[in-house]
């Protein structure tokens, strides 16, 4: 699991995907989220504006790698 440090208390899911370099653009983040390819804390998440907090775990469907939201 890779820790991704954020500088704020929370971050939106689409912003997190870009910040962690999981996607290259906001459009790619939007597409993956809308298609149900993003998993937050073990559940499929389809809301781009989902608020993530420290300790949340994000992954992509079909991939083993996980990203943990941490405080920088």
TrEMBL record:
One of its GO terms (molecular function) is RNA binding. InterPro entries: S4_RNA-bd, S4_RNA-bd_sf. Pfam families: S4_2. SUPFAM superfamilies: Alpha-L RNA-binding motif (SSF55174). Coiled coil: none annotated. Keywords: RNA-binding. Residues 11-68 form the RNA-binding S4 domain. This is RNA-binding S4 domain-containing protein. It comes from Halanaerobium polyolivorans.
């Amino acid at each position: 699991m890779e820790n991704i440090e954020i500088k704020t208390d929370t971050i939106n899911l689409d912003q997190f995907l870009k910040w962690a370099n999981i996607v290259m653009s906001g459009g790619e983040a939007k597409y993956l989220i809308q298609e149900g390819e993003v998993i937050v804390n073990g559940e499929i998440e389809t809301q781009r504006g989902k608020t993530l907090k420290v300790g949340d775990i994000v992954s992509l469907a079909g991939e083993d790698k996980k990203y943990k939201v941490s405080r920088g």
